[in-house]
Amino acid sequence: MARLRSQIFRRILIQKMVFFDRHKVGELTGLLTSDLGSLKNVVSDNISRDRGLRALSEITGTLCILFTLSTELAPVLGLLMVSVSVLVALFKRSTVPTFKSYGIVQARISDCASETFSAIRTVRTFGGEKRQISLFDNLARAYQNSGTKLGVLKSANESLTRVVVYVSLLALYILGGSKVNAGKLSVGTMASFIGYTFTLTFAVQGAVNTLGDLRGTLASIERINSILSAKDIDDSLAYGLAKELDSKELEDSNGGVYENGSVNKHFMSELKSSSSCSNLTWSGDIHLKDVHFSYPLRSDVEILNGLDLTIECGKVTALVGPSGAGKSTVVQLLARYYEPTQGCITVAGEDIRIFDKREWSRVISLVNQDPVLFSVSVGENIAYGLPDDVVSKDDIIKAAKAANAHEFIISLPQGYDTLVGERGSLLSGGQRQRIAIARALLKNAPILILDEATSALDTTSERLVQEALNHLMKGRTSLVIAHRLSTVQNAHRIAVCSEGKITELGTHAELVAKGGSYASLVGTQRLAFE
Ligand SMILES: Nc1ncnc2c1ncn2[C@@H]1O[C@H](COP(=O)(O)OP(=O)(O)OP(=O)(O)O)[C@@H](O)[C@H]1O
Ligand SMILES: [Mg+2]
After folding, report:
1. What is the number of the ligand 1 atom nearest to the C-alpha of 327?
2. Per-residue pLDDT at 391 exceeds 90
3. I need a surface site. Which of 85, 184, 402, 435 has the fewest CB within 10 A?
């Protein structure tokens, strides 16, 4: 069971990003806990109790004895038992939808709870407790109703089998009694026959319950399968991950992340080796060529329409523009969370799709708009993504110093070992940002992307962090996104993004002289400052 659970977890992890847009966290955790739980129960119950295989062997055994005892009575009993099974099977078929909806309500209830707790601050701010409570109440009621319905069905099913069993016993008494009276059957045989009939009854009951459990399990498996269909698997990621896991756990056959032959191996065989990925990114420009993009879940809205941009190797390119223009979308395409719907992204002339995603993730360092930390210590967060044996404590401290985070970290109660809480909630926004920057610095990747990386800092800290970043950006291909134009005015090139296209391109001085939208942006920010 542990293995199955791990396999499902792996399978979820290698899904495309759109999968995570589509399914809620509660639903996915539900797959691993409740749906799998019902699977576990059916396995353990049917091994440990009077069910499953044991029941089946008992049925065969007692039927044999009954036939030996009386060849005339046994067929009657056998016939009755067969009719019970048919009846029960028909009845079970009608209960599948109930089992399914039970699973769905269960997922929704855990969804509601996890969403409420993770957004507890927002709930407090807007006095949303009542709303969340009524939401949960409704779900809890639906859950209960669904459970009751399921219980009724289950007990109706058991009563039905019992009724049939008692009818058979009655038939047996009548038929057997008349035979005893007629002197065709001894009382002793009749008595043992009835005794064995009871054994048979219990065994059939066990088998029927097993069938019931299997129904529930099948509903769970169906849900797991329908969510984890192969079409959303990110082949490029699955391939890279499988390669790494296989080399690490050779003897563990469990390592195959992409089973069922779902990976397009032909396409994968054309992937380049990791050394070429790293070489190319250290030496070549990145081009976004006529990139069109719409998010898979909102395919009718085109976010980027024919965006062309060159991010020169070893230089700083800045991307500015109004909110919602598509700047972070460009970052998501560069990070390969999504693929362009049209056009392509190349590095040194090679389409980036030729690299598997694990390799690609190693050449990109990204600090995004809303950095999320893991609920481990500060030090572990900074070292996240690097193998433990590679990172020393000194490296971590060096990166923290460069990100202007060392001072505040050592003033925390346990220094680098302080836990940061879920998603880093025990730190301030600016502190989180500096840790995210340190994490990106430590990775030492050729491509650096900063999406509003210093937006939560005060001007003094920002200047300090900016200095560290300027130092770091030397020799790296960097893309910087910022609303505060003072942070980008020294960039080698500034691109203005508007309505999914690059509308202006040049240095700060050139763009100001041109008097276009960048110049007016600069104007308004200066005004706001004065
Ligand atoms: N996962 C998503 N699914 C669907 N639409 C999305 C998704 N993420 C962003 N969008 C939409 O894409 C558009 C561009 O968003 P994007 O985050 O790229 O803007 P931005 O330029 O970074 O803005 P800001 O400066 O406010 O960060 C927005 O209209 C947004 O609603
Ligand atoms: Mg953004």
Report:
1. 21
2. no
3. 184
- Residue ranges and CATH numbers for the domains of the chain are 25-227 (1.20.1560.10), 235-268 (no CATH), 275-529 (3.40.50.300)
User: Cα(332) to centroid of ligand 1, in Å?
Assistant: 10
Instruction: Out of 13-17, 75-79, 466-470, give the one with best mean pLDDT.
Output: 13-17
Looking at residue 259, its pLDDT comes to: 45
Question: Of ligand 1's atoms, which has the minimum distance to the CA of residue 321?
Answer: 21
Q: Which residues contact 184 (CB under 8 A, 6 or more apart)?
A: none
Among the ranges given (181-190, 234-243, 245-254, 436-445), the one the predictor scored with the smallest mean pLDDT:
245-254
Residue nearest atom 17 of ligand 1, based on CA coordinates: 328
Global pTM value: 0.77
C-alpha 234 – ligand 2 centre gap (Å)? 24
Ligand 1, from 19, 22, 291, 303: best to mutate by most atoms within 8 Å of Cβ? Answer: 303
Q: How confident is the model at residue 249 (pLDDT cuts 50, 70, 90)?
A: low
22-47 tens-digit pLDDT = 888 877 887 777 766 666 666 666 55
Query: 429-443 and 393-402 are packed helices; what angle lies between their axes, rounded to 10 degrees?
Result: 120
CA of 325 to the centre of ligand 1 (A): 7
pLDDT of 250 strictly over 50: no
Q: Whose CA is nearest to atom 22 of ligand 1?
A: 328
Q: What is the mean pLDDT of residues 346-375?
A: 87
> DSSP labels for 156-206?
HHHHHHHHHHHHHHHHHHHHHHHHHHTTSS-HHHHHHHHHHHHHHHHHHHH
Ligand nearest to the CA of 320: 1
* Nearest ligand to residue 333 Cα: 1
DSSP state of 15: B
Q: Name the residue at shortest CA distance from atom 13 of ligand 1.
A: 324
pLDDT at 239: 82
Of 43, 86, 41, 77, which Cα lies nearest the Cα of 59?
77
Q: What is the mean pLDDT of the chain?
A: 82
Tokens 């054309």 belong to 270
Centroid of chain to Cα 511: 44
pLDDT number for residue 340 = 93
User: What single string gives the DSSP state of each residue in 474-525?
Assistant: TTSEEEEE-SSGGGTTTSSEEEEEETTEEEEEE-HHHHHHHTSHHHHHHHHH
Q: DSSP secondary structure string, 271-339?
A: PPPHHHHHHHHHHS-EEEEEEEE--GGGTTS-SEEEEEEEE-TTSEEEEE-STTSSHHHHHHHHTTSS-
